[in-house]
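User: Predict structure, ligand 3,4-dihydroxyphenylalanine.
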Amino acid sequence: METLQKRIEEASSLDALEKIRVEIFGKKGLLAAEFAKLKDVPGPEKKAFAEGLNHQKSALQEIFDDTLKVLKSAALEKQLISESIDVSLYGNLREKGALHPVAQTMDKIIDYFVSLNFSVESGPLIEDDFHNFEALNLPKYHPARDMQDTFYFADGGLLRTHTSPTQIRTMLKGKPPIRMIAPGAVFRRDYDLTHTPMFHQVEGLVVEEKGKVSFANLKAILTDFLHHMFGEVEVRFRPSFFPFTEPSAEVDISCIFCKGSGCRVCSHTGWLEVLGSGVVDPNVFKAVGYEDVSGYAFGLGVERFAMLMHEIPDLRSLFEGDIRLLEQFR
Ligand code: DAH
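Assistant: Predicted complex:
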C-alpha cells in the first residue's frame, strides 16, 4: 500500500501518472485483482476484507487526485510560459518600399503638366500601322520608319514604338481644343547602355483654334518644364526633323554634370538632348479630319530623364530589379 502511494506521488508527468492509474485502478489493475480475491474469503471475514479494500482504494484515489491536480497545474504553467508573448519585444521591422525611380520621374513629369490643366491620356500597347505610323505622316516605305526599329506581329499589328499614336486616338475621339499628355511604355528592337527594348515616354499635344498657339508657346512651356525637372539649366532648341511636326526641334539642356564645360556624359559638347518637339504637321491634322487648327507636340524618354536626374550610368540597371539600386530611391 505504501509503495503504491509512493509511486503515485513520485509520478513525474501526466503520462507517467496515467500509466500508474491503469496499473492500479484499471480493469485488470492491482485493485481489481485484490477485489477478485473477495470470493475466496470465508463468509464471516468478507465484510471486513471488503471494507479494508475500499478504504485502501479511496485513500489511493485521494492521493491520485491530489497528484493529478499538481501535475496538471505544473503542465499548464509550463505551457503558459512557452506560449507567452513578450509584448515589449520589437516586431519584425518591415522594410519600407519605394516607387521605382522611373515611376518617380514619371510622376514628377505628370505633376507638371497636370498643374497646367493637361489631361492624361492612355492608349493600347499593341497598335496598328495607322495610329503608330500612317496618321503621323509616316506612310509605308517612308525612310523615316527606320528611325524606330519595330516589333511586328504576324497579323501586321505591332508594339507601339512611341506614345505619339495616343495623340491620334485622343484627337479622333475628341475635338479641339486639346491639351494632353500620354505617358506609357513603348517598345523598340534596341539593347545597349542607353537603350532597352521596353522603355517609357511621355507625349504631349496642344491643339487650339488656328493661330492661337505657335512655336513660341512650345518654347516657353518646354523651357519652364525643363527647369521644373532639372533646376537652373540652360535650354536650347536645335532644328531637327520629325515626320509629324514641321518645323521640328530637338531640345537640349546644358550638361548637368559639367555645367557645360564638356565631359564624358555630354560627349564633350556641354549639352544633353532631352526632348523632341515641333509644330504639328498639317498632314497629321488631315489624317484625323481637323481643320483650322494649330498645335504643337513633344515627346520625351522617361528613363533618360531618370538617368540624368539620378546619375545612373547604365539604363539596363533600371530594369534588373536589383534591390541595392532601388533602395537608394526610398
Ligand atoms: N515620337 C518621337 C519618338 O519617339 C518623339 C517625338 C518627337 C514626339 C517630336 C513628338 C514630337 O510629339 O513632336 O522619337
